[in-house]
């Protein structure tokens, strides 16, 4: 009699990682050795956009690289009625905001999606005074490392040089030391195919969807830079139950029927990876 059983060669490591939104979690896990001797990595994320238990992913870039910037534009305070005796950072910052919108619209390939959004503009609190400084800030997104770092460089140049047109000086901070820069999340073609195959075998082809890339970011991206990776979604949307809100909404909830399905898919991805890698 022959006993038939799978011989699993290898070890499955489960990563329980804190501080995803703070931007430091994955980087710190890597620094602490979580990926040592790891040859592939998989992550699943709930999605309110897809019905319960639909699996979605795509090969290549899935989520954008994300950075933040804050620029301090400095002029010289003065009475608003005597503008010639001051250096006006409000006008300089306003020009910088307008010029920043020319980077994506005029310099980026329209087929290579990118975003620059100014989300904050602060300066002055006296209606009769031109202030010393204005602080503007925002975020930028791109799907390739080259496009991302090109945006970073151009934001720096455009703000500094546009403010200098109006005689202001500028410092721009990209918070690089705080690790708030997330690289793009890029799925490895083979790992994506593996997820697709396992999900399709378990749930049927109609329960797998190729999803479009999204401008959001994930710190799983740090892992994708180091080992072949696949990130996929599992739907939790059920209108009857009301699980229709994003993960960032106070109304967020999931259709709990997804739990055994998600656990089975994720476990099978690991098990079959070990069995089939040859
Ligand atoms: C991304 O580009 C920056 C700037 O060119 C470079 O320093 C960095 O090593 C690149 N990262 C990757 C993962 O290619
Ligand atoms: C939504 O949840 C209800 C209650 O559990 C269930 O009967 C229904 O089949 C679910 N719908 C979908 C699309 O999963």
TrEMBL record:
Keywords in alphabetical order, please: Hydrolase, Manganese, Signal
Peptidase M20 dimerisation domain: from which residue to which, for each copy? 69-162
Q: So which domain of life are we looking at?
A: Eukaryota
What family does this chain come from, according to its entry?
A: Belongs to the peptidase M20 family.
From which residue to which does the signal peptide run? Answer: 1-22
Gene3D superfamilies in the record: 3.30.70.360, Zn peptidases
Q: What is this protein called?
A: Peptidase M20 dimerisation domain-containing protein
- InterPro entries from the entry? Amidohydrolase, Bact_exopeptidase_dim_dom, Peptidase_M20, Peptidase_M20_dimer
Q: Which GO terms describe its molecular function?
A: hydrolase activity
Query: Which PANTHER family does UniProt cross-reference here?
Result: IAA-AMINO ACID HYDROLASE ILR1-LIKE 6 (PTHR11014:SF62), PEPTIDASE M20 FAMILY MEMBER (PTHR11014)
BP GO terms, sorted: jasmonic acid metabolic process
